Amino acid sequence: MSKIVSGFSKLSKQEKIDWLTDNFFENPIKAKETLQQYWNDNRVLQELHDDFIENTLSNFYFPFGIAPNFVINGKDYTIPMVIEESSVIAAASMVAKFWSSHGGFKTSIISTTKVGQVHFMYKGDAAGLEFYFDKMKPQLLRATESITQNMRKRGGGILDIELRNKTAQLENYYQIHATFETKDSMGANFINTCLEAIADEFKRSDIELVMSILSNYTPECLVRAEVSCPVSELYKDNAAFLANKFIQAIQIANAEPHRAVTHNKGIMNGIDAVVLATGNDFRAIEAGVHAFAARDGQYKSLSHAEIKDGIFRFWIDIPLALGTVGGLTKLHPLAKLSLELLQNPSAEELMQITAAAGLAQNFAAIRALTTTGIQKGHMKLHLNNIIKLLDASEKEKAFLITYFETRTVSHNAVIEKYREMRSNSV
Ligand code: MEV
Hints:
The chain has 426 residues and is of the alpha+beta class. It folds into three domains: 64-110 and 222-371, 3-hydroxy-3-methylglutaryl-coenzyme A Reductase, Chain A, domain 2; 114-215, Alpha-Beta Plaits (2-Layer Sandwich); 377-425. It contains 15 helices and ten strands. The longest helix has 23 residues, at 347-369. It starts with 12 loop residues before the first helix and ends with a helix. 33% of the residues are buried. The structure holds (R)-mevalonate. (R)-mevalonate is lined by residues 85, 262-263, 265-266, 269, 365, 369, 374.
């Protein structure tokens, strides 16, 4: 039976759910219950969420947690994080505490420039096009004046526009490459509106406009976060040996893309969690960060480490085009609360906090991987999730937790112990 439907978006929420559950589920009543149990009793709040997207049927909960004890540039922060992975907040909190008594995180903004492009095709003479662009440039900027007025008042706006000849990459392909400062907003709407106005003003019968869009590759919207301390303070025992292993782990991530991807994934555990908690666009951040990690032609580690004169230094340079106004940042009540928890930071401050969270996460992962291994801590936390899937009583749960305190946790081991426990009690 065909599942193609017309006019779906015009149906009511209940009609949409009926169509869905009748067509796709063996037990439509159960599917309906699952969707409806996540509805919010607060009608206003539910309607707010319904309106974020089209065809909303329910809410998909992710845990919202906090990692306290971050000291960044001498200021204390409790960082909000939205993440489903059990070990992430525990690791961030532990690392934050450690560095809070070792000088804290030092962060700085390297640059905040964003990019947008008008892509077009032109078959004529390149010099003629350059002449036309140079002549039009003041007019193109004037065409955006009403759009950029407010942004200019806040110290932002269009920084420059230039014509780029890309015909070596693709026949007849040119672009207007525009750079922007968008202050506290992520700037996607602002940039795209400016670009469309520029494209409209620029068009001519022999110029075939293809598209106007911001770029999520933001290597010039860059922030640095770092930590440092004497090697001797980094570990209780064997500090020099373990610090060297830490450095080797970074070198391996630089030499080997398979490792680099996982290494950077660990960084994104921290970054994405803050990006989500503050209502920012994690897909944009992810795309931009990974392109940056591959900017030399090979995908490499985003973080760096060195030991010089007995001092261990660990740092990250990462592009983070974040906003603290616009988008969902003030619209989603929990994003708004997250920003308030961070003392309503500017976008630059949020970039620095987020970079510190990413570096903390990476520090925790590399330290664990090069000492005890990652599974011990991971599986301890995962134990709770495995137990939850079992139909265990409170007493049985407590027994399993105690039993695995001194044993290796694996999914099979937990199930086996649970079965053994059950059969003994029968
Ligand atoms: C797991 O979510 C993240 C790690 O794999 C990161 C890493 O290997 O560096 C532990």
